[in-house]
Amino acid sequence: MKAGKQHPRIEKLLLEAARMFNSTLEYEELTEMILKLVATAVNAEAALLFRVDHDRSDMKIRFMNCAKDCQMKIYHWELGQGVVGWVAQYKEPVIINDAGKDERVDDDFWKTVGIEMKSVISVPLIGRGHMIGVMEAINSVEGAFDSEDVDVLVGLANQIAIAVDNANLYRQAKRDALQKNLLYEIGKKLSSSLSLNAVLKEIMSSLKQAIDYTAGGIFIVDAEHNTVDSIYIVGYEDCTEADVHLKFGQGLVGHVANTGEPVIVSVVSDNKYYIDLHCGTKSEIVVPIKLDGRVIGVFNIESNVLGAYDQGDLLLMTAFASQAAISIERARLHDQLLSTQKLQEQLNIAREIQQTFLPKGDLEIEGYDIVGENISSGEVGGDYYDFIRIVDRQIGVAIADVSGKGVPASLLMASFRASLIAEIRNNYSIRTICEKANALLCESVKPGNFVTGVYGVLDAKNHVLTFTNFGHNLPVLLRADGEMEFLREGGPVMGVTPSAVYEERPLYIAPGDVMVFYTDGVVEVFNEKGEEFGLNGLVETVKRHGTRPACDIRQALYDAVHSFAAPDHIFDDLTMIVLKRTS
After folding, report:
1. Which residues contact 30 (CB under 8 A, 6 or more apart)?
2. In the list 328, 520, 541, 574, which could disulfide-bond 560, CB 3.0-4.6 Å?
3. CA-to-CA distance for 147 and 1, rounded, in angstroms?
4. 91 by DSSP, 3-state: which?
5. Is residue 104 over pLDDT 60?
């Protein structure tokens, strides 16, 4: 510091910094405060801040010219370049008072920024033992920086590093919360819509709340004919249909459709696949929409800002794409069915067939109280339960849930039931029945379709239930003495691995014991806070009502689930069996 120069004491600056940083956790607001503080602390014309982000392939630099307008601007530059890159690498502060003679100074960057670099202090930000970033003071108003200026910024660095880290964690937490809520909300909305155009519109509008974009679209492909089946776009108002099809066929969208791999393009002008259909686009992110391992569409958004998207955006878009895939496929199938004007007829027929699969009433067997319940979420569902008489005082008990919904699910369930019944008539071994039913199912279902369930035989004379669980929700056994068990033994889901092996387990049932079989529609129910009813909710309900008759336990579970659910919760098929030994 030159003689006579009146610099604020470090202690006063630290107190001022603490006051400022405690006033906000908003990242951008905090960054502006830091840039102004840095420039003021050492009487500099401008300030710069860079935060290390391992998800980026470039440096995102925030800059403020306090001698001009004190407006924060963002620049993207090649990773590791300039004095910033040097300090980030070596983690040492540096002072340069003759910038024109120092090879570490990146003249191209400062030409882009629009000022002449004369002098600079660059200080690493290290907080909680790891590298946070770099801050710089540019161009001393008094002509040159000195060692006391360095001391001032080094004194502030730790506090700034912690503040930046905390604000980034807060920003990430807010972003994660927003994303989870968006995914939850869009999941509900998509599950209630069968219009393809409405589904695509909902996806694009919901995404806008989390990731900003100036143009984008969803391209639905027909892989069989290698054509674009449907398109929903935003921001390409001046483009013709032929232009958009070109973008799909030859651009980044077409590239992702062909490879099935997502891409983040920080600078579109450098990418050989990019086709310019939106004036001003500088960066782009493209994600495939997959169903059962095949690409059914492509999700694309563009920004007028360089390097606008990172790995966090990619993860969110991938989550959106995964959630959208089933809804898009379902909506497309729905549109196809509507075009033939046979949807209602087919649903009615499927529902009538499905009803014939279910028992006509509750099971009556001496010494036991057994009831079942099946409530479909639509006209047809994918759940099934049954009581199958084998020999005197031996009853087969089955509950199952198939992948998918609607008519396809009901057809898959019909195939499973037919296989199960056929093998029950030919075999006594439960494990053999399940292994053969699985092999038959594998021959008749498409990849990606499967069945979960539990099948057991109740020997009411000896009070033994022998069962196997094939990838299903764990049935609950509440003993009369209050102990709880879960029916885990079995094997994998049916319809995937032809050679699957299943384990069976005998289970003694004592007087007063209660057993509950159920499908995911009972436990995967959410309240307004996004909390799940879950296995804990089911267990607690069974414990509270375990001394009552089976029909009362069934009703108590139904009431508990519906009381817990948010008013706008979209229910899945709900199926359960309650078995209680009475004597």
Report:
1. 21, 24, 163, 164, 167
2. 541
3. 7
4. coil
5. yes
Whether the predicted pLDDT of 567 surpasses 80: yes
Q: Give me the DSSP letters along 355-398.
A: HHHS-SS-EEETTEEEEEEEE-SSSS-SEEEEEEEEETTEEEEE
d(CA 164, CA 167): 5
Tell me the C-alpha to C-alpha distance, in Å, between residue 342 and each of 345, 347, 407, 411.
Answer: 5, 9, 12, 17
Token pair, residue 327, equals 């809804």
Chain segment 415-441, per-residue pLDDT in tens: 888 888 888 888 778 999 999 999 988
- Asked whether the CA dihedral 526, 532, 533, 535 is positive or negative, the reply is positive
Q: What are phi and psi of 530, to 5 degrees?
A: 85, 10
Strands (E) located in 86-119: 94-96
Q: Which architecture, in CATH terms, is 193-340? A: 2-Layer Sandwich (3.30)
What is d(CA 480, CA 581) in angstroms, rounded to the nearest whole number? Answer: 10
Element (H, E) at 346: helix 343-357
Residue position matching structure tokens 């992702």: 256
pLDDT in tens, 133-184: 898 999 998 889 988 888 888 888 887 888 888 878 877 777 767 666 766 6
Intervals of CATH 3.60.40.10 along the chain: 348-581
Q: Which CATH superfamily is domain 10-171 in?
A: GAF domain (3.30.450.40)
d(CA 282, CA 355): 57
Cα 279 to Cα 561: distance, rounded to the nearest angstrom: 52
**DSSP string computed for 451-497:** EEEEEEEEETTTTEEEEEEEB----EEE-TTS-EEE---EESPBTS-
Q: How far apart are CA 33 and CA 16, in angstroms?
A: 11
User: Measuring CA to CA, how many Å separate 395 from each of 233, 557, 569, 579?
Assistant: 57, 24, 36, 12
Cα–Cα distance, 101 to 480 (Å, whole number): 86
Interhelix angle 311-340/196-208, rounded to 10 degrees, is 160
Distance from the Cα of residue 180 to its chain's centroid: 7
Q: How many angstroms separate the CA atoms of 245 and 275, rounded?
A: 11
Strand-pair partners of 391: 394
Q: Which helix (H) or strand (E) holds 93?
A: none
Q: How far are the Cα atoms of 287, 498, 512 from residue 267, in angstroms, in the given order?
A: 17, 48, 69
Residue 244 corresponds to which tokens in the numbers above?
Answer: 């958009």
Residue 573, SS3 per DSSP: coil
The first and second tokens of residue 502, run together, are 């299943």
Q: Is the pLDDT of residue 482 over 70?
A: yes
Residues of the chain with CATH 3.30.450.40: 10-171, 193-340
Torsion angle, alpha carbons of 408, 409, 412, 417, to 10: -140
Look up the CATH superfamily of 348-581.
Answer: PPM-type phosphatase domain (3.60.40.10)
Whether the Cβ atoms of residue 571 and residue 565 lie closer than 8 Å to each other: yes
What are the structure tokens assigned to 273, written together?
């696949």
The owner of tokens 């053999």 is 432
Q: Looking at the DSSP assignment, which residues form a beta bridge with residue 469? A: 454, 490
